[in-house]
Amino acid sequence: MIRVLLVDDHELFRSSLRVRLEREDGIEPVGEAASADEAVARARALQPDLVLLDLLMPRRSGYQAIPDVLRASPASRVLVVSSQTGPTPVRQAISAGAHGYVPKRASDTELVDAIHRVAAGARYVDPDLGAQLVVPDGTPALDPISDRERDVLHLLALGYTNQEIGRKLYISVRTVDTHRAHIMSKLGLETRAELVLFALANGLIGPS
Fold first, then answer.
1. How many other C-beta atoms are found inside a 10 Å radius of the C-beta of residue 10?
2. Distance between CA atoms of 137 and 116, rounded to whole angstroms?
3. pLDDT at residue 20, as a whole number
4. What is the average pLDDT across 11-32?
5. How far apart, in Å, do the first and last CA atoms of the chain sit?
């Protein structure tokens, strides 16, 4: 059973979402919150498997809440459900620590599928939103990196450590470090969250 905390400042939306999820086998809404501060408190008290989180809330935004929610409930996964559908909000949410992102206009089927995927440990970004994140300069986004760097990028995005990647690819940790530095430089990435987002947007990881 996936225990879900619903976070949105609109009571009508929370109620609608709760009704939708209560119809689904294997999903149990266990609590609600109407603000970022309340979300952190409820996450700490309930330790949910998944937090469905809006971004636009009074006083403190969902972006600001994500790291605090994950500190309060380290085993929880965060799936953003937002009316914000531009590439910048998606990047910011993933960089803040969210594990997935779906628009509020998503169908029941997509939302439930995203919940199951994210709760199971995968990352998920709505395909239409993900398509906006692909580098739009006419050059395939992965062209700057070598095949070996692509292998390293894929494993990094999946969460493997440098030591684990070295063992899988039969290369030294120092070589993994070098590949990682080259990847980040060539692709203009600064953090692991940006690396994961890039991999999602360009089909290296994500829904199959």
1. 14
2. 34
3. 92
4. 94
5. 23
- Structure letter (DSSP) for residue 167: H
Tokens of 40: 């952190």
**Token digits of residue 47:** 């330790």
The sign one gets for the Cα dihedral 81, 84, 87, 91 is negative
For residue 88, give Cα distances in angstroms to 2, 20, 25, 85, 184.
Answer: 29, 28, 34, 8, 19
As a dihedral over the C-alpha atoms of residue 88, residue 197, residue 95, residue 103, rounded to 10 degrees, the angle is 50
The neighbour count for residue 132, using CB atoms within 10 Å, is: 16
Query: Which uninterrupted H or E stretch holds 6?
Result: strand 2-7
Cα–Cα distance, 126 to 101 (Å, whole number): 6
From residue 157, how far is each of 100, 138, 140 by CA, in Å?
14, 24, 19
The token pair that represents 197 in the structure block: 């987002």
For 37-58, the pLDDT digits (tens) are: 999 999 999 999 999 999 988 8
> Counting Cβ atoms within 10 Å, is residue 208 exposed (0-12), middle (13-18) or buried (19+)?
exposed
> 């990881």: which residue's tokens?
205
DSSP secondary structure letter of residue 169: H
